[in-house]
Design brief:
Radius of gyration: 20 Å
Helix content: 25-40%
Number of strands: 14
Structural class: alpha/beta
CATH topology of the largest domain: Rossmann fold
Number of helices: 13
Strand order of the largest sheet: 3-2-4-5-7-6-12
CATH superfamily of the largest domain: Thiamin diphosphate (ThDP)-binding fold, Pyr/PP domains
Distance between the termini: 46 Å
CATH architecture of the largest domain: 3-Layer(aba) Sandwich
Length: about 325
């Protein structure tokens, strides 16, 4: 299998889907500048830069989707989605329902998110939970290049709007990507590491932190199971519940603000449907309720690290919870 960065895997998925379907077009902030190969192959009518006007970009995409096209738009950084909330949440997310299913809205919105570049609070803000809470939208955040390519291809073919978040810290990390038309169903989590003592649930870059923590825990005789959600909406509830029922312990890890984050929903899910299996309290590890610093070391301190995750897991085996 060839090795690609997550950024290049996204480019491959775009190219393959544009060849497959002439209705797929890509536009947004700097796409023609960043994706020269796509411009050369498909021309400026299907790959085009836009003004820095997120609401207009998203609104144009909603209209294009309603006419049968399959737009992929790039709004650069996740906080810029704030300028397109009406178009994405109030139009794209609701119009298929409002039309009684007469219209489809196959729209994919790309946005970079998370720590790794020191770009400051107005460019780094994990907003994925906002869109999970918005009816009609699907939300994806892959942790590796292979999943990024396969999930993007699936998202482009979906008849519903999909928010596709790219973790900045993973953007240029290489990984093996299978050849061929690989797809992944939205809402299907991956068991990144099997274990029977504690479940670590995560997505994006913190999946890798959980895997590092699992390695540390294994040296101490604790077998951690790591679940990579891949898709936040739809959410693979069955995979989460099956793992927690087996291990009896749960830690949910994400970089986004802990308050009202995806981890809170997962904790509630397990408390409601697998409470009898729990042998210790559920732990949520997330970012603080504060804007992100521009300083790289402070930015990294914002993110739950492997050491923090391993320490939290060991607490669950203390005599206090026995």
């Amino acid at each position: 299998m060839p090795s690609l960065t997550l950024y290049d895997a996204v480019g491959e998925a775009l190219g393959e889907e544009m060849r497959r379907n002439p209705g797929v077009l890509v536009f947004g902030e700097g796409v023609a500048t960043k994706r020269h190969a796509l411009v050369e192959e498909f021309g400026p009518l299907r790959v085009r830069n836009t003004p820095l006007s997120e609401g207009i970009i998203a609104g144009t995409a909603v209209g294009a989707a309603a006419t049968g096209l399959r737009p992929v738009i790039d709004l650069l950084f996740a906080p810029f989605l704030c300028y397109a909330m009406d178009e994405l949440v109030n139009s794209a997310g609701k119009l298929r329902y409002i039309s009684g299913g007469q219209f489809a809205f196959p729209l994919v919105t790309l946005a970079m998110t998370g720590a790794g570049w020191g770009v400051g609070a107005q460019h780094n803000h994990n907003l994925e939970a906002w869109f999970v809470h918005s009816p009609g939208l699907k939300v994806v955040m892959p942790s590796n290049p292979a999943d990024a390519k396969a999930l993007l291809k699936t998202a482009i073919r979906d008849d519903n709007p999909v928010l596709f978040f790219l973790d900045i810290g993973l953007l240029y990390q290489p990984g093996e990507v299978p050849l061929g038309d690989q797809q992944l169903s939205l809402g299907l989590a991956a068991i990144a590491r099997e274990g029977q003592d504690v479940t670590l649930v995560s997505y994006g870059k913190t999946v890798h932190h959980c895997l590092q923590a699992a390695h540390t825990l294994a040296e101490k005789g604790i077998a951690a199971e790591v679940i990579d959600l891949r898709s936040l909406k739809p959410l693979d509830e069955a995979a989460i519940l099956a793992s927690v029922t087996k291990t009896g312990r749960l830690i949910v890890v994400h970089e986004a603000n802990r308050l009202c984050g995806v981890g809170a929903e997962i904790a509630a899910l397990v408390a409601e449907y697998a409470f009898a299996a729990l042998q210790a309290p559920i732990i949520r590890l997330g970012g603080p309720d504060a804007p992100v610093a521009s300083s790289y070391p402070l930015e990294q301190a914002f993110v739950p690290q492997a050491e923090t995750i391993a320490a939290a897991a060991q607490r669950l085996f203390s005599p206090h919870y026995a």
